[in-house]
Design goal:
Number of strands: 20
Helix content: under 10%
Strand order of the largest sheet: 8-9-10-11-20-16-15-14
Strand content: over 45%
Amino acid sequence: MTGNDSAVLRVAGRPVARYVTRPELPRRLSPRPCLHPVTTLAGTTVTEFSPADHLHHLGVGVAVPDVEGHNFWGGRTYVRDRGPTELDNHGAQRHTAFQLRDPDGFVEELRWVAAGRELLRERRTVAAAELTAGAWALDFTFSLTNTTPDPLTIGSPATNGRPGAAYGGFFWRARKESAAPRVFTADREGEGDVHGGRADWLALTGDTWSLVFAGATEATRRDPWFVRTEEYPGVGSSLAHDERVAVAPGDTLVRRIVTVVADGRLDADGAAALVRKAVSP
């Protein structure tokens, strides 16, 4: 994994994440800026980049499988009545510039380009903050503006006919271990119960680490969670769960996810306490 203009995020002087703006990847993987590796304060890596099971899973970032028919997720495209299909429809997210870059975060401008034209322009704001001696928070906001003269719609395999596959939006490919991670919310546990549901926060815990994801705006909290633990460990916030989302020309779609990155295995009380500390009112 290589790239120029990379940024290293630090918490209490320790590096906790590397952001690469131009990963060198084939077009089929929908190249896009991403965070990897992301680590706990003790140094445990909690992301994976282009793993063998899903080469197009790239650490932490924004990935959307269907923007007006263009694939910004990578890999095959789910086509109604045909299933996963290899198509020459991949887009790319292109880093334009950092508007701000500090040790604890950055503001970035990006262009979403497919078929030789820009569809969306994004402003991405990422910040890292210490919570406790064993936990920090990654605050990730993306704002997508339709720069075309026509309405754009965002879809997912679910809106294209594949039940339970409403992935697309913020996505975190987590560390894969010998056993599947535990996943839970304040009142539900297990992939079957939390996947596709709405919850203020959702926790994923592995052998020695925990991730707690929280929607930090009302619009973000309305998006159901996309969760995988058995096939692979991954969590995302679904932009297009039940129906396609329209973005009018000049309009902007905004989402903000705050993720607690902690050493150790948190329980529900511990996860909720750290979320309260991490998410500003």
